[in-house]
Amino acid sequence: MRNERRLLTLLVCLVLGIGLTAAVLGATRASGPDGTSHSGMNSRDYVDIQDVPAGPREPSATGPDASTGTVTVDCGRNEERHYNEDNLVVSPGLRSGAHHTHAYVGNLTTDAMSTDASLAAAATSCRGGDRSTYYWPVLRRTDRAGGHPHDSSAGHGNAGEILPEATVSVEFRGNPVGKVVPMPRFLRAMTGDAVAYTAPSDADVRARWGCSGSPDRSTTRYPRCAAGERLTRTLVFPSCWNGLDTESPGHRAHILFPAANGVCPQGTFAVPQLRISLAYDVPAGVAIAVDSFPEQRHSPKTDHAMFVDAMTDAQMAAVVGCLNAGRTCRT
């Protein structure tokens, strides 16, 4: 009888040991270097906005040739609910090539199959007739599923109710050290790094998050805002064009960012600088997640945006004229 009890005890211990080992291995495989789950949010992705130091100011205009104007393009805030899982700039011709959902303003037909000709002929949400397309990954609240088709259509861990933009600002600015020249029609541009979480450096991280009550503070983390304030996203695009191409391998080499003082790299020309500013009403205490590739774990550092210039030559000339003359314009 004693031998039978000992044997039973050994069997129980063996089963428990195997189960514990499997659980530990499973947790290890499901976790990253910081110990967080692939499907869970990392608490270190959040920061109280008051703990974020005030950032440096925009470079001030220097010299008589500075282009100090601004042009705001009124394209609404995606009231049409134009969403898809495509990316015309990065993966043209490939349906659902983004593996996450994008929100759009401007051109109302943009998808993976769009062409220069289809963009030029499409309807637009922009009041002044700009048919350019402006788009970015959606932001979701993860505490409820939502009922819109795109609340669950992206897959790859991107689920939750899509938060609608409370405001969308599409603005072009000049250059603090010189005049700007027109962008070529159908120029493709992107800002930010969709794979920043696993990238070897933060060199291409550009998007900044903030709160409406603290416009002088921005961060690459999800900010916790005071009650009554809106969460903000600011996406600034490169504005130094090589003078030749509307696209390039990797989607970056043909249009670069200026130095901190506004000076463009040698061999490039300053063009209007696009700035997209988004704001959201986020209930207090609600977890949020920007759509991402699954291995990027919804890191706020992966925020990004894309743009295809479909303005007519006359429309672009008006933007450039306003910026170079130092005026404040709205279309």
From TrEMBL:
Q: Which InterPro entries match?
A: DUF1996
Organism, per UniProt? Answer: Streptomyces flavotricini
Q: Which residues form the DUF1996 domain?
A: 89-284
This protein is called what? DUF1996 domain-containing protein
Domain of life (superkingdom) = Bacteria
Where is the stretch described as Disordered?
29-70
The signal peptide here is none
